[in-house]
Specification:
This protein starts with 7 loop residues before the first strand and ends with a helix. 62% of the residues lie in helices and 8% in strands. It has three domains: 112 residues, Rossmann fold (3-Layer(aba) Sandwich); 64 residues, Orthogonal Bundle (Helicase, Ruva Protein, domain 3); 139 residues, Up-down Bundle (Zinc Finger, Delta Prime, domain 3). Helix 5 crosses helix 7 and helix 6 runs parallel beside helix 8. The chain has a five-stranded parallel beta sheet, sandwiched between helices. The relative contact order is 0.09. Helix 3 links the parallel strand 3 and strand 4. The protein is of the alpha/beta class and 328 residues long.
């Protein structure tokens, strides 16, 4: 076995793609035919030790790897058995643990004493930078706005992001990926699917807001009335968030502090703060009233087509100066 491999590794954290790559590197070093994969949900610590010792008897020049998944399932006696084994590990055998295990846990301390703990985490605020790094790793070019748009649409699940990044990188074929490309090619998850519409509203771009609403309606597989009601509700939620952020900004809070208080994603807070700067208090208040009226109209309070009601409302709440004239 290569001299630079330790007898034990604990590989944990929220960065699933990086954990997978670390495990792939270990597998490559020893060869797939020299790997045994076990689950701590199915075997005890004593069983894992027996597997390590058994593999050690047949270890060749490339070494052997025992991979223990779901290590969080073990109890104290299991960890104690492994810790005792690590005092005198089998030659040419590496044991690696993955799962929801803390680096400072009993297992983590035992591994630290004789091997390495590799903790791969990405803070919520660093996710767009992580996205950019993954694009670069694949040899793809993506604009910063594209990375932020992808996080807005998918969320901060790194495994889901990695899948979308690979798809976009393949599609781009060496061309630079922009935010518009992301919005067209990536299916939004839950509320984030309205990102293009709320962003256009926040920029006070009437044409873009109308275009985004039409695109959302066309791409939806819901009945037209249901999708109209969904968009109206999500718009109302976003405007409400922007109003709260505007009030917190007036108190002297920054976006990061507001995110914690409102329990929302930091990037959602940053967007809301940016949108709040583009509207007066009265304009946001009127937008809330108009969206409530839209909800009523879509539920039978108007004889006009729902699409037209949505368009009229979008124009009214997006175009500068509407609130001042209607509230004067």
């Amino acid at each position: 076995m290569a001299n630079d491999l330790k007898p034990a590794y604990l590989i944990v954290g929220g960065d699933g793609p990086k954990i997978a790559r670390a495990l792939d590197r270990l597998r490559t070093r020893v060869g797939d035919e020299n790997v045994e994969v076990l689950s701590a949900k199915e075997v005890s610590g004593a069983d894992a030790v027996a597997a390590c010792n058994a593999m050690g008897l047949f270890a060749g020049g490339s070494g052997r790897l025992v991979l223990i998944r779901d290590a969080e399932a073990w109890k104290a006696p299991d960890v104690k058995a492994v810790a005792a084994y690590l005092e005198v590990p089998a030659p040419d055998t590496v044991v690696a643990f993955t799962g929801e295990v803390k680096p400072d846990s009993a297992l983590g301390k035992a591994v630290t004493k004789h091997g390495d703990v590799l903790a791969y985490d990405v803070s919520t605020r660093a996710v767009p930078r992580w996205v950019a790094e993954q694009f670069a790793r694949l040899g793809a070019k993506a604009e910063p706005d594209a990375c932020s748009a992808l996080v807005q649409l998918v969320g901060d699940d790194l495994d889901e992001l990695a899948a979308e990044i690979e798809k976009l990188a393949t599609w781009a074929g060496g061309e630079t990926i922009g935010a518009r490309d992301v919005q067209e090619l990536v299916a939004g998850r839950a509320e984030t699917s309205i990102f293009a519409l709320t962003d256009a509203w926040g920029r006070r771009d009437v044409a873009a807001a109308l275009g985004a609403s039409e695109e959302l309606l066309d791409r939806s597989d819901r009945p037209r009335r249901d999708e109209l009601l969904r968009l109206a509700g999500l718009l109302a939620n976003h405007v409400g968030r922007v109003r709260r952020c505007q009030a917190l900004a007036a108190e002297g809070l920054r976006a990061r502090e507001a995110a914690g208080r409102l329990k929302i994603h930091p990037f959602a807070a940053e967007k809301a703060f940016g949108h709040a700067r583009n509207f007066s208090v009265d304009e946001l208040r009127l937008a809330t009233v108009r969206l409530a009226g839209l909800d009523l109209a879509l539920k039978g309070g108007s004889r006009l087509p729902g699409d037209l009601e949505l368009q009229r409302t979008l124009v009214a709440i997006t175009r500068p100066g509407e609130a001042r004239s209607e509230l004067s």
